[in-house]
Amino acid sequence: MVTTQPTTLPTAPSQADVRRLGEALHERSDEVRAQTVARAADSGAPLGPPFVRESFERICVLATTTVADWLSGGRPEDGLDAGHEAWQIFGQLAAQRAASLHEVTRRCLYWRDCVNDVLRDSASQLGVPKEVLAQARAMVQVTLDVTLVKMCEEFESERQRTDEELARRQEELAFMATHDPLTGLPNRTLILDRGEQMVVRSRRHRNPVAALSIDVDDFKGINDSLGRAAGDEILRTLTRRLDGVLRGSDGLARVGGDEFVVIADDLALSAGPELVAERLLEAIKEPFHVGDTAVRVTASIGIATGARARVEDLLRDADIAMYRAKWDGKDRYVIFESGMQDVEQTQRELESDLRHALANDEFFLAYQPTFDLHEMNPKGMEALLRWRHAERGVVQPGDFIPVLEQTDMIREVGRWVLEQACAQGACWREQGHELGIAVNVSARQLDRDDLLGEVRDALSVSGLEPGALTLEITETALMRNVEETARRLGAIKQLGVHIAIDDFGTGYSSLAHLQRFPVDSLKIDRSFIAQLTANPEGETLMRTLVQLGKALSIETLAEGIEQQRELTLLREQDCDSGQGFLFARPLDADDVDGFLREWSAARVAITTASEPARQT
Ligand code: C2E
Ligand code: MG
Ligand code: MG
Fold first, then answer.
1. CA of residue 430 to ligand 3 center, whole Å
2. Is the pTM higher than 0.70?
């Protein structure tokens, strides 16, 4: 008789053993977290800022707990709740563009491998059979699969939501950045753009193009005697009248408080710019009714016509003619003639004086503090260039920096500013003031690779920590040469230096472009802060800008805070930082220490006065 050995059938894993493995995993969940973090670090992929790392660690712990609970006998549905929190964290990371989907997926796989390692080790310690280990691993894989699918869904929907929101904000922003909120007319940026197209067109078709610069006479007097609201009303009515005189194809813009510009082409068909100017002057002369008062207003108009390389040249000449009209007695128009270019004469003198200014030690820096609006503490100093001229006294940057830029002298002067500011910043920090230093960088400096070396040298000579230095770059400068600028700023950023966009909102801000620069801070232009209290749109716009910063995880800093009310609104809107005459005007370097001491003594008063209104 032949007896056969019974074949060993695969035994179903004992639930008790699976449970023991689950409990072991529970106890070792911190080990899984640590190993996953270490593996991700070894992979060399960037770990991102601290909050991204913390999010990943949180997800890791949640996922390990979920799978351990399941192994220990919990229902798989219960795991969904915990899973939900993890997917939401993924969603937030996606929304803030803090991590790529690829990177997140990779980390999920590291997590699975680490869990499996711990399970294998626990199985051998507990002596559970390999079928049990296999089942546990299958459950880990299911958890991973569900997580990956849900995470992709969450990523997708969050990205879509934020993309839509950003696109909407961008549209709002683009409109508001190119229009004057009081009259709804195009602003300077937009008219320059349209005017440029008209100049190109007129060159092609040989049609004359003309610019008219219109400035209301003594408008300040109207504002002072009747009040700002009446002044605004007059400007709105005036806009309607100007618009009524012009043809649809003419471009009308408000370029300053009481300054308007008209650019017209195709004038050969009509009666020419002189007649347009006469009609405009007539329309302005009609009395304006403010309450019971009839107010008479006049204006001076300058006209420039003919071929120019750029629309700016045309506008500059129209301005020169407009000043001549004022000089000649106001309420009239004057046509530009080449002999009027005395402005250029002054410019040439300025240029020749500037050539000696650096060698003669005529430049110096003033420092204007910036403040943390949550803590109401000074957090940094912006270095602002000044020129002490032998005859003119102290000249403000608006009057000479354009000349430095045109002549390229700005490179040398810019390097000097960088060195001085870093040395001064290091000195204040040695004295115990926790201050950052911000330096304005001109578009010209960004045109060359030299800037990186200059920043590095200024840091190493002064001993200033790179993290304490911020370079301020205007939006327009950034957008001049996107590719090259992004590369140069990327390299500077690698040093640890911060990058801020200055006068944000005044250029054509393209968010798509903005995201290509390693930006830490948006300095929102003063014009937006001035509008905050002027009209409701001003508040909405400011909120949009602050929210935009938050969506992109970029600090927002409001420039030019002059009134307590502006500060209060900005704090309510959760704007991060601020700067302005309300806090301090630019200071001499020697006065900074005293200012900081006085501030810490007096800050209690200002903080209480501007505490945001509490929600009840
Ligand atoms: P910015 O970088 O936007 O500097 C802020 C300007 O706003 C400063 O004028 C400051 O005095 C002024 N400001 C600050 N708070 C208020 C306020 O509450 N109300 C008003 N009305 N104005 C306020 P500043 O010093 O005349 O500088 C003008 C511009 O010149 C700067 O604008 C910057 O673009 C340029 N600039 C200054 N220094 C340098 C420099 O070293 N290099 C370069 N490239 N540009 C510089
Ligand atoms: Mg600045
Ligand atoms: Mg600015």
1. 28
2. no
